[in-house]
Amino acid sequence: xxxxxxxxSFDPIHSGHVIPVRRAVEVxxxxxxxxxxxxxxxxxxxxxxxxxxxxxxxxEMALLNEPDFEVSAWESTPGETAYTVDTVERFHRRDPTDxxxxxxxxxxxxxxxxxxxxxxxxxxxxxxxxxRPGWDYRSVQQSLPEELRDLVTAxxxxxxxxxxxxxxxxxxxxxxxxxxxxxxGAMPELVVQYIRKYSLYR
Length: 202
What we know:
CATH superfamily: HUPs
CATH topology: Rossmann fold
Number of domains: 1
Strand content: 15-25%
């Protein structure tokens, strides 16, 4: 089986977390993508998030009509820092014959060498890098470790080009906090109603 793994704080989840991943499924021929809402992202120390159970519920609602996408609770234990390498190793142990693809954005790809045990991540999973029009691998190539450049040369990194989704979680939190209208198509209406019901960002 060919699986995608896509983690994040999803605070809140929006169309920019879904539409590009659909494209990755198409490009890579993935059978399924597992979304992993992260209780405490290690690269965002000190930031306050909506409770992990709330963010998990929002991801579930956002993916109800996405048959190829599934939510996993492996990184959602409250109070625990989740590391990608632990998740990748867990998927690998489940079935070592699976073809794993770790999905991440272009900015995260550039920062990957700073991640905990990043070499084990790329040893166990190929990379699917979500890029926007105009992004050029050559512009960051020389700043990457040779091992990462070798993975690109070997075909273990796929750059999945996408049209930009002009919304961000930061912007959405501001809109909810100020009571402003949420742009049409920015996120599923069910998630909008859930956030407003529980005043998650007020």
